[in-house]
Write a structure and sequence with these properties.
Blueprint lengths: L7 H32 L3 H24 L5 H28 L6 H22 L6 E3 L3 H9 L1 H5 L4 H5 L5 H16 L3 E3 L9 H19 L1 H23 L53
Antiparallel strand pairs: 1-2
Helix pairs in contact: 1-2, 1-3, 2-3, 2-5, 3-4, 3-5, 4-8, 5-10, 9-10
């Protein structure tokens, strides 16, 4: 019996499914190479590797949704890779930059990596691995980029003369603690708007985003850290001014208990309504003895 050759459509479908994971592995590549660059003293290139990893992290989810190839495996792989690229790698960069000569400097890196891991686990539990309207807590890619790009910004020409170059170990330590707390906080952070030309407002937003992206590609050392720092402070300021913290859900996403989605209402049962017809119950009876035995 001659078997018909497999249709090329199946191979194409498998290729499309692999595509999001390829972006995720690219994210991991840049995270690992960022640590390699930091170990060689090239902190500028290490910072841009974290930025490249964040871009791939943003693309893998959108590619998965666009091709309808999202899976549980892809979500778990993405979280594990994010711990490396936006937790371990930025913490290693900070350690090599200012903490290597201090006996207990590694503790700051441990705290930051722990906060990143907890934040990603909470994200998967609370938002199912995909933010619907906003993030609860500072996104780990943003925190990783802020920490990694601090050195290129403070050592840039002109900025170094004004701000004094690389921040001290105390300043970097405070920054890591603040970023760790914001990642674990319930502060809502807005999603990055999608590019669209549907409507005047969407078109203007898209043009602004494209302008920011072009500027960041042209002079990244002057743009990336201030832009991300503004985004980080904006979430805290917005929550404080508008009182959004009071509107957040009360349920702790770290708990394993799930809410009853059935909406069942507990009501007391009046057995007189379901009594057999052969033993009718008078409406004015107040005690079960008058109703007779129930079979």
């Amino acid at each position: 019996m001659i078997r018909a050759p497999k249709a090329p459509r199946a191979a194409l479908q498998r290729g499309i499914i692999i595509l999001p994971s390829a972006f995720t592995i690219g994210n991991l590549f840049f995270g690992v190479y960022a640590m390699v660059s930091a170990s060689r003293g090239n902190f500028g290139w290490a910072a841009w590797c974290i930025v490249f990893a964040a871009l791939l992290d943003m693309l893998d989810g959108r590619v998965a949704r666009f091709t309808a190839t999202g899976s549980r495996f892809g979500a778990e792989l993405d979280s594990l890779v994010d711990v490396v690229s936006f937790g371990v790698a930025p913490a290693f960069i900070a350690y090599q930059l200012v903490f290597a000569d201090q006996q207990w400097g590694w503790v700051m890196s441990f705290i930051y990596v722990s906060a990143t891991a907890i934040r990603l686990a909470r994200f998967n539990v609370e938002q199912g691995g995909h933010a619907k309207r906003h993030f609860h807590g500072l996104p780990s890619p943003t925190a990783g980029m802020v920490l990694a790009t601090a050195d290129p910004f403070f050592t840039a020409a002109g900025v170094e003369n004004v701000l004094g170059g690389v921040p001290s170990a105390q300043a970097i330590g405070i920054l890591m603690i603040v970023l760790a707390l914001l990642m674990l906080s319930p502060v809502p952070y807005p999603l990055v708007p999608r590019l669209s030309i549907k409507g005047a407002r969407a078109t203007i937003t898209s043009l602004v985003l494209l302008g920011c992206a072009f500027t960041a590609l042209t002079i990244p050392e002057y743009v990336v850290f201030p832009f991300l720092g503004t985004y980080t402070l904006w979430g805290v300021t917005r929550s404080t001014v508008l009182g959004l913290l009071d509107r957040l859900p009360d349920q702790d996403p770290l708990l394993d208990e799930e809410e009853d989605e059935g909406g069942a209402e507990i009501r007391s049962v009046d057995y007189r309504e379901i009594a057999p017809e052969r033993y009718p119950v008078a409406e004015d009876d107040e005690t079960p003895e008058t109703a007779g035995p129930l079979l």
